[in-house]
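Colleagues,

For the teaching module next term, I've prepared a clean inverse folding example: a structure given as tokens, and then the sequence designed for it. I'd like students to try predicting residues themselves before seeing the answer, so please don't circulate the second half yet.
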């Protein structure tokens, strides 16, 4: 079950490659699926590079690494996750092709950021600009 704002959030039109698609807010489940897609993408990259099994550090996803993947190689997946509830016939490959057809990964990422409904600069791309800090929870 989501929050009231997630359940009642209006659909947002997205202009991608000359098409207007309706997007829905991402849920925690969607983010979990996006994380698994990133892990699968990393595994496929290792296979293509003939690199043997990665150490545990490569199997861990940081928020910064996830945000970078979502704004780059994973942008087609994010688009698919946002529109699949309203456009059930749209495939992941079609979404990736739309991102490529648009010609600007940055513009598509900005369109998804705008569609988040948050003030400018407060979408998932904000994580790319945040400095990381160490945090100690010791008493």
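(Answer key — instructors only)
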């Amino acid at each position: 079950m989501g929050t009231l704002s997630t359940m009642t959030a209006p659909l947002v039109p997205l202009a991608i490659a000359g098409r207007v698609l309706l997007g829905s807010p991402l849920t925690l489940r969607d983010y979990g699926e996006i994380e698994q897609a990133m892990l699968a993408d990393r595994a496929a990259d290792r296979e293509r590079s003939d690199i043997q099994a990665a150490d545990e550090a490569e199997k861990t996803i940081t928020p910064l690494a996830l945000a970078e993947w979502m704004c780059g190689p994973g942008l087609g997946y994010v688009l698919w996750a946002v529109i699949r509830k309203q456009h059930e016939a749209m495939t992941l490959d079609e979404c990736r092709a739309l991102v490529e057809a648009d010609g600007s990964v940055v513009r598509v990422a900005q369109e998804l950021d705008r569609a988040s409904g948050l003030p400018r600069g407060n979408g998932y791309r904000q994580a790319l600009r945040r400095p990381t800090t160490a945090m100690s929870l010791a008493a």
